[in-house]
Amino acid sequence: MQEILETLGQRMRQLRERERVSQEDFADYCGLHRTAVSMLERGKTIPRLDTLLIVSRALGVTVSRLLRGIERWGALPSKTKFRDATVNHG
């Protein structure tokens, strides 16, 4: 999971830097604290859905674009697959 968060953070940083916006200015624009943006970009926190919406809008991309392919960069937590659970119950 950590690799996924770090990859997402790197993507966010690349998109922000492509626009030549400082982390502090970006945080202000998004209504977030600079340390929150820093933690997101370093993969140190799991973003809430509303944060992803705000950040993606500020970066000029959709949430889908921001997350596209992220799952390939790290292992997801091991949980029972939804499909397996529905087969056993129905």
Task: Describe the protein.
The structure is a single chain. With 90 residues, this protein is mainly alpha-helical. The chain has one domain: lambda repressor-like DNA-binding domains (434 Repressor (Amino-terminal Domain)). The chain has 6 helices and no strands. Helix 2 crosses helix 3. The two termini are 31 Å apart. The mean pLDDT is 87.
Features:
90 residues, mainly alpha, globular, 434 Repressor (Amino-terminal Domain), 6 helices, single chain
Helix content range: 55-70%
- CATH class value: Mainly Alpha
Order of helical and strand elements: HHHHHH
Please identify the structural class as seen in this structure: mainly alpha
**What summary fits the major beta sheet?**
none
User: How many DSSP-defined strands?
Assistant: 0
Stated plainly, the CATH topology is called 434 Repressor (Amino-terminal Domain)
Low-pLDDT parts are none
Radius of gyration: 15 Å
Kindly summarize this structure in a few lines:
With 90 residues, the protein is mainly α.
What's the helix and strand layout?
Blueprint: H1 2-18, H2 23-30, H3 34-41, H4 49-59, H5 63-67, H6 82-89
Helix pairs in contact: 2-3
